[in-house]
Every structure is written in C-alpha cells, then in structure tokens.
Amino acid sequence: MTVGFISLGCAKNLVDSQILAGFLKQAGVELAAAPEVADIILVNTCAFIEAAREEAAENILAACEHKRRGGCKAVVVAGCMVARYRDRLRKAFPDVDAFLGIDDLERIPEVVEKIAGGKQTGMFARKGQACRVYDPAYPTLLFTGGPFAYLKVADGCNHRCAYCAIPLIRGNFRSRPMDSLQAETRAMVKAGVREINLIAQDVLRYGCDLAKNGKSQLLQLLRKIDRIEGDFRWRLLYGYPSEVSDEILELLATSPHACKYLDLPVQHSHPDILRAMNRAVAIDATAGLVERLRKQVPGITVRTTCLVGFPGETETHFKHLLDYVKASQFDHLGVFAFSPEEGTPAEKMDDVPAPEVAEARCAKLMRVQRKIARERALALTGTQDTALLLRKRGKNWIGRTSRQAPDVDGITIISNLPETAKTGDFATVTITGVKGYDLTAKA
Q1: How far is residue 77's CA from residue 398's CA, in Å, rounded to a whole number?
Q2: Tell me: the pLDDT tens digits for 114-164?
Q3: What is the spatial distance between Cα 309 and Cα 200, in angstroms, rounded to a whole number?
Q4: How remote is the C-alpha of 279 from its chain's centroid?
Q5: 227, exposed or middle or buried, with CB in 10 Å at 0-12, 13-18, 19+?
Q6: Strand partners, 385
Q7: DSSP string, 126-161
Q8: Which of 93, 208, 295, 438 has minimal CB crowding within 10 Å?
Q9: How many C-beta atoms surround the C-beta of residue 414 within 10 A?
Q10: Which long-range contacts (CB under 8 A, 24 or more apart) does 265-269 make?
Q11: Rounded to whole angstroms, how far apart are CA atoms 267 and 51?
Q12: Whole-angstrom Cα distance, residue 286 to residue 304?
C-alpha cells in the first residue's frame, strides 16, 4: 500500500501532514509521489472558515470519485474537519474509509494496515478537546518543496477572539519542549534547510504554558537556535500584537540569523470593534504598532491581516480601519470578510453588515493596500538584499528575500546569476523593480 497526501489549509496543517508521513515511514509504508498514483489518498483538511470547508469537501468528494473509478483503494480524511465535525462526517461522506483525529496522528499506520487487510475501518478520532503536541519522527521529511521549512513550536490557542473557532478545533495553547525544537532545527540545517519559519497560533507566546511564571520563553528558544552552526535564517510568523516585547524586537534587530520580519494580524483598528472581537487587550498595542516596530527594528517588514464586516461594523468603523492602514503603510496585508462560525460568540451577534457590503469593504481595503505595497516595493529599487534561491525558471531564478514569507508575500525574479548557482544558495541581489506583488532583482 502506498499513501499520497492532499494537504489543505495553513502551514501548521502542512506540518501535521509531514508528521503523518513520518509515522508511515517508521512503519515501512511507502509514500506515493502524488495522490493520483497512490493506493490510499489522505486528505488533511482545514475547517477554519466556510471557504476552507468547501475546499475540503470538494477534495474529499473528488478523492472518493477517484476511488469509485478504480483509481485508488481507499480514502482517509484527517485534520481540522475531523476535529470540528467528528460525529457528522460519516453521514456527510459515506464513501470515506477512515477518519483520523488531530490527536491521533500516530494511528495512521494502524489505519493503513486495516485497509490493506480488508478489515473494518471508520472513526479513528477520540472525543474531547485536543491536548497533544507531536515531535516529528523525521525532521527532514518536508513537504515544502524547497530549501525552507516550518517549525511548529506550539499548537492550540488561549486567545478567545469572538469570531474564531481555532480553540474549539485545536484546543488550548500547548508548547513543544525547547530541546526538541532545537534538535529539530539543528537536523534541518544540517540537511540543507536554509530558512526556518517558526509558526504557531501565537508564536510570541511560546513556552508560556511550560514556564512556572507563565511568561513566554520564545526569547530563550531563539537564542538557542541562534547558537546552531550553519548558514541559515529564521522568521517569526503569526503573533498577537500585544505580545510583542522589546526584548524580541532587540533580538530581531541584532540576531545574525533573524529575518527582520513580523506577521501580526491586527484584525481591526477601531476600539469598538476590537472590544466586540474580544481583542480589547490589543487596543493599545495596535495603535502605533508599525511606528514602534520600525523605530526599534530599522528595515523591518510587517505583515498583517484585517477582518471586515464584523457584527456592528459601521462605515465610520471601516473608515477608521482604512485610515489606520494608510497611516501604518504595512508591507503586506491580507483581508477577509466576516463569516459566522458555529459555536463562536460572534455567531449570535446582531447588526451583521450584508455580505455584499463586507465584500465591497474587502475590495476597497485591498485597493488601498495594493497601492501602498507597490509604492513600498518600488522604494526598494537600488537597495541590496539576500535572496534564497528556490528554483530556476528559464534564464532567471525564483527566490525570496528576507522580506518575503513563503506562499503569501510574492517572490523575487533574479537575473544575472552564475551558472554555478543552485537551489538553497543565498545570493546578494540588487532590487531592480516590481512586477505585480513580486520583485525583480539582479545578482
């Protein structure tokens, strides 16, 4: 039996897919080159918002149709959809052979063995709140397709934003042991990984559940990672604005390995909406956030996410957000329209802007941000940066500078590299221009 993966959703889910693959490899199960040629298709799902659930359902149904036509022997569904809708999935997808919970990843060899033996399969997901964290059996078994990796330092979330179902799906925040993370990073760097992206629902709170005083241990972890020998860089993704400490900013400004980059989803700027979102603790931190970051870390790249159309959001609230984005001049920004999530406080809130209003606000905010992003990118023309080479395309190379996180920030198209250049190299480049959301550069 061979197993092929369809991994949906965020990078944290991709790490879970890698962990599943590691358990299979430990058990001697072969991984297929692609799901289309596998005996068993494993769909690792996302359930964060309605669009993600629709994508998951489409992929599950397509895999089941592939099985019906004789393309594979079985379909297994794992991930957040199973955690969120455990008791409904069997009825919703009767052709799926097995469902695997996010706290039951090590059971995937058992599932495969039962399928191979023609034995009864079904639900392999325990009930109750998720409470486990996993160390990968093979730190260098990566699905990123390049010389970069994600280091998931924690799972779950202790924030209770009114619109968010993550705590219902992933449980409370729980960190991995520091020594394990240091060992995983060392193994990846030794194997040739050149960029380590630290991820969690709130990476800045890493270790708060492990420390007796309840304080973050991220600074200690980063210092341990900094002491690892090798030519690599690290980046912090997904942090809560109020958790940004002066000590972390000082490390970003001085570390030889740090990308001067932070991804801090603000969601909104108006205090009324932040209170309604149950993010009141972030009100003070959100105001003047970018000014503080750029003062303490010159040259820092700041990404954020905004949510529009939240219950009670008026045109005045939205204009406040627009003005905030214009004043902050974020380097990168994503925006989403509110959708009520089952089981969250926001699901029952009144005064929800009409969907067409929310979508119009999305479009207006992105028009403003598109102009900001282009102007900030054009201002880089003539400056130097270090690009990580990913792959060759014609005569040019595709890479990413320290300003560009994987999958979300565009790429850098690099010319004039020597014939000896290879994937995984760091190259000093001069930015020459902008092409959409991408940069052009010359070695």
Answers
A1: 34
A2: 999 999 899 888 888 899 999 999 999 999 988 999 999 999 999 999 999
A3: 26
A4: 21
A5: exposed
A6: 429
A7: -SS--------SSTT---SSSSEEEEE-EES-----
A8: 295
A9: 26
A10: 265/238, 265/304, 265/305, 265/306, 266/241, 266/304, 266/305, 266/306, 267/161, 267/305, 267/306, 267/307, 268/306, 268/307, 268/308, 268/310, 268/313, 268/317, 268/321, 269/320, 269/321, 269/323, 269/324, 269/325
A11: 18
A12: 11
Residue with tokens 């920004």: 333
Given a contact cutoff of 8 angstroms between Cβ atoms, the answer to whether 311 and 351 are in contact is yes
pTM for this entry: 0.94
429: tokens are: 């480049």
In terms of DSSP H, where are the helices of 297-409?
Answer: 315-328, 355-378
Task: Report the chain's mean pLDDT, rounded to a whole number.
Answer: 95
Q: What is the pLDDT of residue 43?
A: 97
Residue pair 168/215 in contact by the 8 Å Cβ criterion: no
Q: How far is the C-alpha of 396 from the C-alpha of 132, rounded, in Å? A: 44
What does the alpha-carbon distance between residue 261 and residue 434 come to, in Å, rounded to a whole number? 20
CA angle 75, 78, 83 (to 5 degrees): 140
pLDDT tens per residue across span 215-246: 999 999 999 999 999 999 999 998 999 999 99
CA distance 249 to 247: 5
Q: H or E stretch including 251?
A: helix 246-254
Q: Which two tokens stand for residue 313?
A: 């959001």
Task: Assess contact for 148 and 194: CB atoms under 8 A.
Answer: yes
Contact call for residues 111 and 136 (beta carbons, < 8 A): no
Dist CA 305 CA 405 (whole Å): 14
Q: Supply angle C-alpha 146, 154, 176, rounded to 5.
A: 100
For the chain, which domains are there? 2-124 (3.40.50.12160), 148-377 (3.80.30.20), 384-442 (2.40.50.140)
Q: Tokens for 49, please give them.
A: 């918002």
